[in-house]
Amino acid sequence: CRRVEAMWWGTLGTVRPFPNFNAEKDARVIQNALESKGSDLNTLVRILTNRNNAQRQSIAQSYHNLAKKVTLCPALKKALSGGLEQLILGLMMTPSQFEAHRLRQTMEGIGTDEEGLLAVLCTKTPQQLKDATTAYKQEFGRYLENDLISETSKDFTKLVLAILKKEELNSKENVDYHLINQDVKALNDALNGKKKDPAPWIQVLTTRDSNHLSRVLSGLEDLRGETVDKTVQSHFSGDLKVGFQTLVRSIPSIPLFLAQRLNNNIKKSNLVMGILISHSEEDLLCVRIEYRKLTNTSLYSTIQKEYKGEMQQALLALCRSEDI
Q1: Is 287:299 a contact under the CB 8 Å cutoff?
Q2: What is the pLDDT of residues 87-107, one digit of tens each?
Q3: Distance of alpha carbon 200 from alpha carbon 205, whole angstroms
Q4: Is the four-CA dihedral 55, 60, 63, 64 of positive or negative sign?
Q5: Is residue 324 scored above 90 in pLDDT?
Q6: Which of 46, 98, 123 is nearest to 287 (CA)?
Q7: Residue 309 main-chain phi, psi, to 5 deg
Q8: How far apart are CA 11 and CA 284, in angstroms?
Q9: What is the pTM of this model?
Q10: How close are the terminal C-alpha atoms of the chain, in Å?
Q11: If you write DSSP's letter for every residue of 83-127 in order, what string do you get?
């Protein structure tokens, strides 16, 4: 599965537009579910996980008109709690709002979740990151770049900001073997001095497209006779090491990187729902395929085993089906 540059209803997303969609009808059913004694959570989950994001936005608008200017999200918040509340409210956000909230979450509380922050930044396209940056200002009244600067330090700050503003400057039309060799040399030379120089690594890894970088990393492995992951492990430390490791693991295949992340953190509901919501309309089918190859178990059956109740129902609906 190749990286998807924009949302499109081919075969890579698991959540598709619901056929014969009627926003007003859905809004009415949701209103009845919210007004029923104890709230009919099953109905809320069934409808909102079986509509795509654009359809959910239409439902929210119809609900607003229907419920005499009461907005849907506060009504859902009142009826829900815990992880299910977080999941359903996440589904009601636009994709750029959702990514903005994911980024904010990694910086809240004591200390920054560097791995979580990088996992979002490294798995989104330049355009998606621009949209998330705009949404971040609208949602929180603060600048994402400023928050990243205050939450990070030194070379790690430079790396994070370079990923946030990544521009793929190489030509995508043809394979530029000269530039590939030049980049391999630059990465290798940066490791050979007494003091390791992260600048060429930051520059190369954040200004080329993934196909070019896969060739560069493969060339570096041939030259050094070890995996790039091992090279990063032995030459860098701290946050910078985490940053470069996330980059080199995600460059060859984002779906594989996400499958590994799910496998290592399957009990962390926040992380699982973050990946499933974020990728449900993009490439979650590819993630499922990689998960199956990696673990010899389907993501669907793993979720069935690890989660219960409405949370299980919601996650399974996003995952969509079993992989045999």
Answers
A1: yes
A2: 999 999 999 999 999 999 999
A3: 8
A4: negative
A5: no
A6: 123
A7: 65, -145
A8: 10
A9: 0.90
A10: 18
A11: HHHHHHHHHHS-HHHHHHHHHHHHHSSSS--HHHHHHHHTTS-HH
